[in-house]
Specification:
Largest sheet: 8 strands, mixed
Helix content: 10-25%
CATH class of the largest domain: Mainly Beta
CATH architecture of the largest domain: 3 Solenoid
Oligomer: single chain
Distance between the termini: 54 Å
CATH superfamily of the largest domain: Hexapeptide repeat proteins
Radius of gyration: 17 Å
Shape: globular
Number of helices: 3
Structural class: alpha/beta
Strand content: 25-35%
Number of domains: 2
Strand order of the largest sheet: 6-9-12-15-18-21-23-24
């Protein structure tokens, strides 16, 4: 049985993925109680007390996902949707990483721990994706891109080849990234520019 930590929208999508894999699951949450879709939500501390063998963090927010991973010593599993396409020659997939339906991950890609490769996102050859990165639906990461820890790549964004994206950056939805992005920077537009820069 796989424990899904987080019972919000992303947790529900993770539930669907686990059901597609034919596996049993239970919800756990730090802040919610009751039930969802007919399933009881357990307090997270019960997972540790009851010695659950497998867990996945079903939380889309990168900082929150990191906090949960650091606070709870559980055995985290990686999940790949049966309708995702993942190269047989992928470099590595870290613990707790999720590849959603329709996503494509190409050859020699390295995915860090607790990443989300969301619905229909594309990660091309030789990309290096650090821990806690979220690549949102239909975003495209072209070849040989490096993405730093905790970066959020917005829905439909495009990152051109050989770009370096810094840690804890935000790439706005639909942005086209044509040059490197510094740590903690937020960029939007086509071509993508820092949100605090003067746009004419």
């Amino acid at each position: 049985m796989i424990a899904i930590i987080g019972s919000g929208g992303h947790g529900l999508v993770v539930k669907d993925l686990i059901e597609c894999l034919g596996k049993a699951f239970v919800f756990a949450d730090e802040f919610k109680t009751g039930d969802i879709d007919g399933h009881t939500i357990l307090p997270v501390h019960e997972l540790i007390h009851n010695n659950y063998h497998s867990a996945i963090i079903g939380i889309g927010n990168n900082q929150t996902r990191r906090k949960v991973a650091e606070n709870y010593s559980l055995t985290y599993v990686s999940l790949i949707h049966p309708k995702a396409i993942v190269s047989k020659s992928i470099g590595s997939i870290g613990i707790g990483t999720i590849v959603m339906a329709g996503a494509i991950v190409q050859t020699h890609v390295s995915l860090g721990n607790h990443c989300i490769i969301n619905t229909a996102a594309v990660v091309e050859h030789e990309c290096r994706i650090a821990d806690y990165v979220h690549i949102a639906p239909r975003a495209t990461i072209c070849g040989n891109v490096s993405i730093g820890e905790g970066a959020m790549i917005g829905a439909g964004a495009i990152v051109l080849p050989d770009i370096q994206i810094g840690a804890w950056t935000t790439i706005g939805a639909g942005a086209v990234v044509t040059k490197d992005v510094f740590d903690f920077e937020t960029v939007i537009g086509c071509p993508a520019k820092p949100i605090n820069s003067h746009v004419i």
